[in-house]
Amino acid sequence: MVNNNITLLDGGMGQELVHRSSFKPDSLWSTRVLLDEYDLVVNLHKDFIKAGADGITINSYGITPHRLKRHNLDNMFVTLQQKSVAAAKQAIDEMSSTKKIQIYGCLPPLIGSYYRTVGINRTEAVEIYKKMIEIQERGVDAFICETVTSIEEAQILIEATSETSKKVILSFTVDEVDGTILRSGESLELALNQFDNSKVDEFLINCSPPESMIMSLEILKKFSKPFGTQPNGFETCLPLTPGENVSVLKKRNDFNQEKFVNFVLECINEGASIVGGCCEVSPEYISAINNKIFNLNK
Question: Which of 182, 190, 231, 233 reaches 20 to 30 Å from 278, CA-CA?
């Protein structure tokens, strides 16, 4: 149980599924697990719920037409999107939790993570996101626009989500050293200012080092929307080249539960009301922060 004013999100689905899988990772990443080891996806969602998460994000981060096409699986786009929603719903049904667990739809980068540009025509990008929304919408409570690297990418996502009635969370990823700028090199403050009066409901910073995110907090606090953080535990996460797999991404030796909990508590002290984790944040990390928040509010 967590403070009613704090929403505790889950951790990183993709990396944790790769760690749990019996197969070697390839460039399909967690989508491969959804195809070949579906029960692992359901069970990981359940583990995050057991850990105390108020919401779980569907495992669709890698399900984009361009990523699937590299493996001649573009005809599976709709089916895999549907399976990712079904896995989250199944997990909640099997847990029979006494609290309402939110399901977050996932609107990820279309070509690959951390690229400075969208990588495809703007009109095409909007249409792909609209298709994702159409497939996911009935089964989710909100949408997270994840790992957004640039203002242009954010504009595309806001256009695509303009007709949904569901809550929209805009989540930027910032520079690994300077948390005041996006990975595109653009100002985080400029980006947030552009969307502060939009239909976006909440701002997040995700998939960035905690040290960099601390710098982001000072900017997030200037705006009217609720905000939060989801740090990753990578040594570095420079863009993977198409076809490269996630085995090249290494976890930091110092990214332990204590460090994660201390960082999240600092974010909460600075006004964050949405907290959770990204890559290399397992259910054990979420349980650790859940227990800490609960004890603080006894």
Answer: 190
